[in-house]
C-alpha cells in the first residue's frame, strides 16, 4: 500500500483543478519541461509520482505526449520561454484581465505541482517552493504580486527557496490555487489553536493568581502566628485581632469570603485594609522582610 504524504495529496488535488481545455495549458508544459528539445525526460521519483504522471497525461495539450517510459515527445516546436513571456509579461504593462488572472493562476498551480512542499498543518505551518530557474523565479514573483501574496526568500545549498510560515498566508495561497477545502482546513486549525491558546493563557493566569494568593496568605498566617506569640499584645485592637484569628482559621478564603464571616460583615476593601495593618504591625515589631 502506497503511503501518501500530505504534500503529495495537495499536488494531486492541484492537478484535479487543471483541465485539458484550459486556455493557459501551455504554461503547465512550459513549467514542467523547460527547454525546446524534441525529446525530454520527466523525472519520476516515487510510486506516488507515477500516479501523478497518469493525471498529467490527461491534462497535457494534444501536441505533447508523455510516454510510459517517462519520455516526453513534442509534435510541434515549443518554446517555454516564449510561452511564459506571451502569457504572463502583460501583467506588467496591461490592465489585469480575467485571462491574465487565469494564466497567472495556472502558472502558480504548475509551479506548486512541480516544486512545492507543504508540511502537514497538524504539525506546523510551512510551505516552500524551490526554484532554480531565473526565468521561473521572475514570473513566480510577478504572478504572486497579482494575487497580493508575498513569499519570504532564502538560499539553501545554492537553491532559491520561497516559503510561507503563516497559516493565514498559506490558506490564502491555497485559495489562489483553488484548493478551497484545504484552505478552510487551515483556517479551522488556526481558529482551534487560537482558542486553545486563549484558554491555556486564561488557565495559566488564574493558576498564577491562585498561587500568588495562597503564597501571600501563608506568609500572612506566619506573621500573625508570631504576633500572637509576642509578649506585648498591646498593639492589637478588637477589630484587628478578630480578622487575624479568622485568617488563621480560614487561610485560603478570599477577602470577600472572610468579610462575610464577620459580624457585622465587611467589604473586601475593609478586610484588605485590616490585614495590611496587621502586616504593618509585624514590620514595626520584627522589621520588614
Explain the layout of strands and helices:
Layout: H1 6-17, H2 25-32, E1 39-41, H3 47-59, E2 64-66, E3 71-74, H4 80-88, H5 90-93, H6 98-115, E4 116-118, E5 127-130, H7 134-146, E6 152-156, E7 159-164, H8 167-176, H9 180-229, H10 238-249, H11 255-261, H12 268-286
Antiparallel strand pairs: 1-3, 2-3, 4-5, 5-7, 6-7
Return the structural class: alpha+beta
Question: From the alpha-carbon coordinates, what is the Rg to the nearest angstrom?
Answer: 35 Å
What is the number of domains? Answer: 2
H/E element sequence: HHEHEEHHHEEHEEHHHHH
Indicate the CATH class of the largest domain: Alpha Beta
pLDDT averaged residue by residue:
82
Give an overview in words.
The chain has 289 residues and is of the alpha+beta class. Helix content is 61%, strand content 10%. The longest helix has 50 residues, at 180-229.
Characterize this entry briefly.
The chain is of the alpha+beta class. About 60% of the residues lie in helices and about 10% in strands. The chain folds into two domains: about 5-190, Endonuclease I-creI, CATH 3.10.28.10; about 210-285, no CATH class.
Which features would summarize this protein structure in a list?
289 residues, alpha+beta, Endonuclease I-creI, three-stranded antiparallel beta sheet, 7 strands, 61% helix
